[in-house]
Design a protein that fits this description.
two-stranded antiparallel sheet, 6-stranded mixed β-sheet, alpha/beta, 12 helices
Amino acid sequence: MRRSETLDAPLPTHWGLFQRLKNASIYAFVRFALALLAYVPFRAVELFTLALAVVAPYIARTETRRALEHLGIAFPELSPAARRRIMRRMYTHLGRAAAEATHIERFLDGPRALRLTDEQRALLDAAFAEGKGVIAITGHIGNWELLAQVVARAGYPIAAIAKPTYDPRLTRLIDRERSRFGMNVIWRGDTSASREMLSVFKRKSMLALLIDQDTKVQGDFVPFFGKPAFTPNAPAALALRYGAPVVVAWHHRVGRQHTLHFERLAFTPTGDHDRDVLRLTWVMTARLEYAIRQHPEQWVWMHRRWKQQPPTTP
C-alpha cells in the first residue's frame, strides 16, 4: 500500500489537551456523519444540505461578505441584488455538492452513473497516446471531486495534488475516500511529492491540478476577471518541460443534469521559458474564467482569490 510522510504523520505535538479533545471530537463526528449519511437516502441528505444552504449566509457572515465583495470585482455591471442571488445560489450549489459527496457511488456506478462520452474518451485517448503523460487543469468549479472520480472510474490513470488538513486523521480519511475508485493523491509537503509528480510522467499518467486559488506555491500574476491573481505556474512549467498535452476540464450542474467538459489546450512555445510559462498559465486561467462565467453560482466566491497583488512600482 502506498504510504507517505503525510499519511503516516502522528498528531501534532504542539496540541494541548483541550485542542486534542476538540479535534478528536471533530474527527469522531466526521466519521460518524459519513457512516450515517451513507445509509440515509440521497434525496433526504440533499434536502438536509439544502436547508443548511438557506441559513449559511447568516451563519458564515465573514465568508458571505467576502463572496459579495469578490462578486463585485468580477461582475461590477451587475446590481447588488443580482450578486446576492449568485451568492445564495452558490451556497445551494455547495449544499448539493456536499450531498453528492456522501453518495458518490450513485454517480459512478449503476443507471445514474456519469459516463464519459465517446468524444471525450477520444480526446483523452489521443492525449495519452502521445506517451508523454497528461496535464489536466481544473478549478473549484461545479463538483470538481466528482469530475476527477469519473475520470478515474473510466480507467484513466490519474493523480491529483492535494493539501493536507490540520489533522492527520482527517487527511487519512480523505485519502481513503478519494482513492477508492482508482485516483492517486499526492500530498503537498511530502519530501517525496516532487518525485511522485515526476513519476506520473514516467508512467505516462495524468496529473490533475487545481489552479484557481491563491496558495503558497510558485506562481505568476495573471488576469482573473480583469484583476491580477497569483496563480500556480507548476502545471505550465511541467507541461513545457515534458511536452505533455494540456487538457482543461470542468463540471457543471444544470438542474438535475451533470455535464462534463474536456478540451485540449493548444499552445505553441516560443523558446523563452519564463515567458512561455507565464503565457500558458494565463491561457489556462482564462479558460477557467470562461467556465465560471457560464455558471458563476458554481464557484467558491468566498476564497480570497486576489489576496496577493503584484508590487507597485514607484
